[in-house]
Amino acid sequence: MSLDLYQQNILEELRRPRHKGVLEPADYVVDRLNLSCGDGIKVYLKTDPNTKTIVELAWQGEGCAISQAAMSLLSDEVIGRTLAELDRFGQVELEQLLGLEDITPGRVPCLMLGLEALQSIEV
Amino acid sequence: MAFSARDIRADFPILDRRVHNQPLVYLDSAATSQKPRQVIEAINNYYVHHNANVHRGVHVLSDESTQAWQDSRQIIAGFFSADPSQLILTRNATESLNGVAYGWADHNLEPEDVIAVTHMEHHANFVVWQQAAKRNNARLHVLDIDEQGRLDLEKAAAQLAHWGQRLKLVALTHVSNTTGVVNPVEEVIAVCRRLEKKAGQPIRVVVDGAQSAPHLPVDFQSLDVDFFVFSGHKMLGPMGVGGLLVKHDLLTSGQLRPWLFGGGMISAVFTDRTDFHPQPDERFTAGTPDVASAAGLAAACRYLQALGMDQVEAWDRQLVSYALERLGELPEIELIGPTQARPGAVQLDRVGSVAFLYRGVHAHDVAQVLDSEGVEVRSGHHCTMPLHLKFGWQATTRASFQVYSTKQDIDRLLDGLSKVKQIFVGPRPAVAP
C-alpha cells in the first residue's frame, strides 16, 4: 500500500465526518474497541420498531484516518437499511466505499472497527 | 577498533532491501532487531552440518549437537557474566517471566503476600504478576511513576517498606520499551536487600532485561538480582530463544521448581514418581531444545561482545540524544519520556528508543505515511497499556535503535514526518508568516 491510503476522499471524511455526534435516547448503543491501538467507536441507532429499519444514526469515535473515514462513509450507507441487512457489509464492501484496494493486514482492524460495532447488535 | 555503524551495516543483509521503492530505514529494533550475517550463518551452519538431537545418542552428530548446545549456553551466560548453570534457555523474556511465576511464585506465595511492579511495565512483566497474584490470592502493588515516566525511588522505597513481611517479589523493567527510561535497578535491589534484612526473609527481585540487554552492559553477578530475563531476538539473535538467569541459591534450594515436564529434565522416571535432573540447566529444559537458535544467539552475543557493550551503549546514547534534539524542534511533536538528565546525574537516563505523539494525527497514520517513505517505526501501545492509560495516550509512535542505526536514519524519519504534515495538515506556506 502506498500513500494512496490517504487519498483526498478519505482526508475529506476525516475533516467533515458524516453523522458524528450523540443520539439520545437511542434504541441501540453499541461500541467497539481496537485493543491494539486504543481506538474506539460508539454508535447510536434509532430504528423503526416494526421493520427494524435504521432511521437515525450518530457515532462518536477517536482513531486513525481509516477507522474514522470508514465509519463516516458507512453511516450514510446504512441509514434506511434494516438491521438484518448490516450482514451484507464486509471488508470488501468497506474497501469499495473508501475506494481502496488490498488494504494491508495491519489496517484491517481499523477498517472494520465501526462495522463490527454495528454488527454486534443482536438481530 | 572504532565503532562504525556504517561498517556494521554491511553485516546486516536485510538493510540492503527497499521498501516502497525507497531504501529501508529500520527504526523498529525495540520490537525486534535485525540479524547480522554471522547469526544467520550460525543457524545455517548448525542445520547444514550438525543437526541431531542432543543428549540422545552416542553418534557423532548427536555429540556435535550437544557440544553446540553447551558451547552456546556458555557464551550466552558469559555475555551476562553469569555461570552457565544459572542460565535457563527459554523462548523469550515472556516465557522466562512465566517460568518465574509458575516455577517460583506459585510455590512460594501465600495469601495476602505482595508482588510489586511498576506502572511502566511491558505486559509480559505485568499480566504475568497480575495473574500470579490472582492464582495465589496475593496482592499486586503498582509502584508510581512521575510525569516523565520515571520511578520515584524514594516514594517506591517507602511504598515497598509499607508492606513489611508481606512483600515477597519486586518485578521491574531495566529499560522501558516506551519511554526509554533506564530504571535505577541497582538502587531498587539495594532497597530490597535492606528491607529483607529488616523483615528477616528474602524479597525476590525480577529484572526484565528485554530492552536493556541489547544496549547496556549487564553483569548478572554484580547486579545481585534474583531473576534476570531477556529475549534473544531483540539483541541481534534469532526469534524463539531467550533466557532466564537465576541466582544460585534459588536453584540449589529447590525454591525454583520445574514448570515444564517431560523428557530431558528427568534423572529417573517410575510409574508413581519422577526424580528430576540434578543439574539445573537440564532440570529446566524439558523436551528437545532449539539448538540452532541457541547457536544463533551465541553468535549474536559474540558479535555484540566484539563491538564492546560500552561502545554499543555510547552509540545508542548518541542516537537517542540526536533523535530527541531533532524531534524536539518540531512543534507538532510531543516527546514521550525524559529529555533532561535527573538533577545531579551525568547523563540522561534513557536508551533504546524515542516515542512521541503527533498532535492531531493518529499514530497509525503517522507510521503508515512513514512506511510509504521506507521508514519503519512502531505505532500503538507497545504492550504498555497501563502506562498509556495513565497518561491518556491513545497510541504513540516509536522510533527505536540498534547498532546499525545511524543519524541519517533519524534524518529520514524527520523527512517522513514532514510528509505527514503535508498530508494531514496541508502544504507548508512558501514563505513563513
Descriptors for this entry?
heterodimer, A: 123 residues, alpha+beta, Sufe protein. Chain: A, three-stranded antiparallel beta sheet, 4 helices, B: alpha/beta, Aspartate Aminotransferase, domain 1, Aspartate Aminotransferase, domain 2, 2 domains, seven-stranded mixed beta sheet, 17 strands
Report what the structure shows.
Chain A has four helices and three strands. Chain A has one domain: Sufe protein. Chain: A (Alpha-Beta Complex). In chain A, helix 1 crosses helix 2 and helix 2 crosses helix 3. The longest helix of chain A has 14 residues. In chain A, 34% of the residues lie in helices and 20% in strands. Chain A has 123 residues and is of the alpha+beta class. A three-stranded antiparallel beta sheet of chain A has the order 1-2-3, with helices on one face. Chain B is an alpha/beta fold. Chain B folds into two domains: 143 residues, Aspartate Aminotransferase, domain 1 (Alpha-Beta Complex); 263 residues, Type I PLP-dependent aspartate aminotransferase-like (Major domain) (Aspartate Aminotransferase, domain 2). In chain B, the strands form five sheets. Chain B has a seven-stranded mixed beta sheet, with helices on both faces. In chain B, helix 2 packs antiparallel against helix 11, helix 4 packs parallel to helix 5 and helix 13 packs across helix 15. The longest helix of chain B is centred in the N-terminal third of the chain and has 20 residues. Chain B is globular. In chain B, 49% of the residues are buried. Chains A and B meet through loops of A and helix 13 and helix 15 of B.
